[in-house]
Structure formats: C-alpha cells, structure tokens
Amino acid sequence: MPSQKNKEMKSYLGNPLLKASNVKIPYTQEQVEEYIKCSNDPVYFIREYVQIVDVDRGLVPFIPYDYQENMIETFDKNRFSIVRASRQIGKSTTVIAFFLHQIIFRDNHAIAILANKDKIAKELLSRLKRAYENLPKWLQQGILEWNKGNISLENGSKILASATSESSIRGQSMNCIFLDEFAHVPLNIQKDFFTSVYPTITSGNTTKVIIVSTPKGFELFYKYWEDAKNKLNSYIPIDVNWRQVPGKDSAWREETIKNTSLNQFEQEYECNFQGSIHTLISTDKIASMAHAIPIYSNKGLDIYEKPVLNHKYVATVDVAQGKELDYSIISIIDVTSIPYKQVAKYRNNQIVPVAFSPIIANISQSYNEAMVLVETNDVGIQTAHVLHYEIEYPNILFTEQKGRKGQVISSGFAKTQNPGVKTTVAVKRIGCLNLKSMIESDKLIIKDYETISELSTFINKKNSWSAEVGHHDDIVMSLVLFGWLIDQQYFKDVIESDISQSIYESHVKSIEEDLLPFGFIDNGIPDTIMNGQVYAETIDGDVWTKVWNDKFKNHKILNR
C-alpha cells in the first residue's frame, strides 16, 4: 500500500497543482482556523489566496479594489445583483474569484457561467481553473471532472461554462447563474432565456442571479438596470466606471478617446446606454425616456392606464402574418388632451390575421370604443374587412383618395372608401416626421419598454426609416400610423384639438427664448405693426426680414 505521504501528494490526472479525489490531508490547527476564516469571509479568502495572471507582471495576488470588495459583498449577501460596469475594471475577475470561494466552501453548489459567446464563457472558466491550481492543496477540494466546459469537485459543487441560450442550462438545477456581458447577447436570445430558463432558477429560496455587463442599447439589460435603480425589481444595482480604477485619470481618458472615439468611450467607459446611430428619435431623447411597469400584463397585452370615462382613445394597428416573425400590434393612445399618452399595447407574433380582428375589437371597445386605424398593405386588409364587415366594429376609420392629397381619412360619404390605410411612402414620411416632433417635444408620452427599445433601433435607411438588422419595428410603425393620423382634418375635428399647432407654438417659444436679446434696443420700428406687415430689423449688424402674425402674437423670421 502507498504511504500516507504519497497519498497526500497524489494529483489529479498527473497535474501536480490539483488535488485528486479521496485524498486526505492532515490540517494543522492554524490551517483549520484559516479555513474557517476563509469560509466565512470571501473577501479575506480572495485577498489572501487568489492569484491571477496580470498582462504585465504574470501571476500575481488578486488584491481587490474597494469597488470590487463591494461587488463581492453584494453578491454574497443578495440573491439578485446587476452590475453596470466599464470595460477593463476587472469585473469578470471579481466574479470568478467569488465563484472560486463558493465552490470550495459550499457543498453541492452548482454555478453556470453564461456569456454572449461560448468561447468567452470557457475563457472565464479557464481563469477560475488557473486560480484554483494556485491555491494551496489544503484549501482545495478533490477533483472529479476538469475540462474546458466543466469542473466537478468531490464536495458536490460544480461549474459549467456555456453561451447564453434558451437551452444552455435547461433541465439542470443551479444555485447561481452568472450572465456575463448580457447587453451584448442578441435580444431574441435574452428574451428566450428568461422565458424558458429563469423560472427554474428562481424557484429556490437561496438561488442567485448575477448580471454583469457594459451597456449597449435600450434592450433587456437596460430594462433590468433601470428597474433596479427605481426599486421596481429585486436586483441590487452596482455601478462601476473607469474613475473608480486607480491610475486612470483625465490624461488616460483623452488618450483613450483619441485612439477610439468619444461615442465609444461614453458607452464602454462612461457606461451610457446608447441606441443605434441615425435614429428617428434623437438618442438623447431616447436615453431620457423612462419606461413604466404595466399595471396589468397578460398574453401580449400590457396596460399602463385603465380606460377613463369620457376620455377619447385611438387604436392604431399593424398586422403581421402570425408566423412567429414580425408582430401584430395594437397601440392605444389617449388623445383626450395634450400631451397624448400611450396607455396600452398588444404584441403577438403568433396570432393569425383573422383571429386578430376580435382582439382588436375587444381591446378597442374597452377603451370607450376607440377610433381604430388598421394598416392594410398586406394581410391587414383581411383583418380590417373582418373587423368592419363581420364583427361590425362601429368606430373603424376609413380612407379615400383625394387627388394630390393622396389618402385622407374619409368622413364616411365617399363612394370609394376603404377600411384602414395603406402605408405609402407619403404616409410613412408624414407619420415619421410627426412622430419625431411629438416625442421630442413631449407631446406624446411613451411608457412602454418594448416601444422605447424599438425606437432606439429605428434608423434611417435609403431615405426612409426601418428597424436595424436583427430588430423589430412593428410597435413603432403603429405609432407612425398615429403620426400620420394627427395631420388629418377629420381627426382634428373629432378630437377638437390641433397638436401640430401645439408643436409649432412650442418650437416658436423655444426659438424666442434662445434668441431673446438682453435689454431694450431702440431700432426705429413702430410700436404698432399691422398683421402681415413685413419689415427689416438690424441685430448685431445683420439685417433680419420679419413678418408680424396677429394670431400667434409673434414675429416670424423670413430670412437674414
């Protein structure tokens, strides 16, 4: 039989750095005390025993900075943590060090490392393995499995590494899931993951979810982060940017911007959420739009405000084929007063056009028989016809052709009128411009997260507007229909308001405030000016041609 000393030296598959299973090591009293101390304090364990590979110095002790200690303590004490972090602040190293502590000192503890790419997940696991190999043997657990994608220890704990996907951990019982760079996982995979896997994670009372990412666009990571900040979910938010890293100063910032770009620096180091470039709605405006939690949510219907007696509502409808590709949409807008408000939204990519009509009728009926405008370019014509001719919904809007004006909302007496509207180039152009004006001037309030997300990827393409590749624009297109509708005289008469005029007055007021001169200048212009009178005024050496408008009580600048 081998001696006790030889047993103590036995390694896993010839790796002298790893302790094999079923190997007993005698502990000194000092080691026992140290083991207990490490077990109770992950920060102490990491500071004293974890080593990492530094690019410049090779293998070095990992001495956490203050913000890294805060991350570790938050992970340890809370079930749900979300970290918005700059690049190059050691976020992955911090998480890996924490997991090293968990698998050593927690029996039967299962952890999943999930990243946007399988290769990245396995690289993170390799870092943990390297740190494990450099632990003293008396701190190690015996190894049962040790490969590129899995680690299993004799205390029953294990770690697996995989790409984030719907099936990455399906059927497995996990104590902790780490989602690395979650903002960079495609949106459809984000949603599929949380729909199919998340319920099994949270079924326990002690299971943990740790989400860490550098921001990207206004997608699911953005939603969870904003909800965490506003205490609308259970995640504890941790914000880390480059300023917290010792050694990084303004000179480093300037050099980094010079070598990359300001836009890239603001996203990856300042941790700003940014949508696509060239979006219809300005990125600053999108960033300032706060989403709300629906008061009711079920099977694609999200309600933000219940119907109010005597309020006026509009339902704009975009119809898809129901083949799990594009979505069929109903947007409900309260148009009782300005600002208009999005109060409900229905979104479904499985419902067929014929079955969609009763849903439109039911939802619109509940909102005081809302006016319904259906897009009829493709299968929408079928939906509109069923809604009008079979269901006989009383408040569907019709359109007719009016020569150069193109399509207009019909008052109901035209010989050739059709239910719904075709989204022509002109309809889309007018709708997009009005939608932009309404949102950016706060005349249309959007509270739905998915709508804001779509707006952040609704970009200019070949002199038109559509979703960026890999994203959807179905909700936005329903709002584009609304943008076209507000320009229609029929709508203005029914609603008894003109939002276009309200937007114009807001712009004029803003311009006047920006150009407001200091003090009073006697420029020779008479105090009384007749309506429509054109006159010249000299300001700072420049001659401005203006015309007075009695109705709006302002001077319109013609030219300079």
What does this structure look like?
The protein has 560 residues and is an alpha/beta fold. The chain has four domains: 28-240, 3-Layer(aba) Sandwich (Rossmann fold), CATH 3.40.50.300; 241-274, no CATH class; 287-499, Nucleotidyltransferase, domain 5 (2-Layer Sandwich); 518-559, no CATH class. The protein contains 19 helices and 27 strands. The chain has an eight-stranded mixed sheet, sandwiched between helices. Strands 13, 14, 15, 16, 17, 18 and 22 form a seven-stranded mixed sheet that branches. A three-stranded antiparallel sheet has the order 20-19-21. α2 (29-40) packs across α3 (42-49), α3 (42-49) crosses α5 (91-105) and α13 (353-366) crosses α14 (380-390). The model is unreliable at 1-9 and 511-524 (pLDDT under 50).
List the defining traits of the structure above:
8-stranded mixed sheet; Nucleotidyltransferase, domain 5; Rossmann fold; elongated; alpha/beta; 7-stranded mixed sheet; 560 residues; 23% strand; 27 strands
Q: Structural class, please?
A: alpha/beta
Tally of individual domains: 4
Cα separation of the termini:
102 Å
Contiguous uncertain segments of 5+ residues: 1-9, 511-524
Overall pLDDT metric: 84
Strand order within the widest beta sheet? 7-8-9-6-10-11-5-12
Shape: elongated
Estimated share of beta-strand residues = 15-25%
**What's the CATH topology name of the largest domain?**
Rossmann fold
Q: Helix content range of the residues, please?
A: 25-40%
Count of alpha and pi helical runs: 19
CATH architecture group name of the largest domain: 3-Layer(aba) Sandwich
Name of the CATH first level of the largest domain: Alpha Beta
What is the fourth-level CATH superfamily of the largest domain? Answer: P-loop containing nucleotide triphosphate hydrolases
Cα Rg: 31 Å
**Total beta strands:** 27
Instruction: Give the biggest beta sheet.
Output: 8 strands, mixed
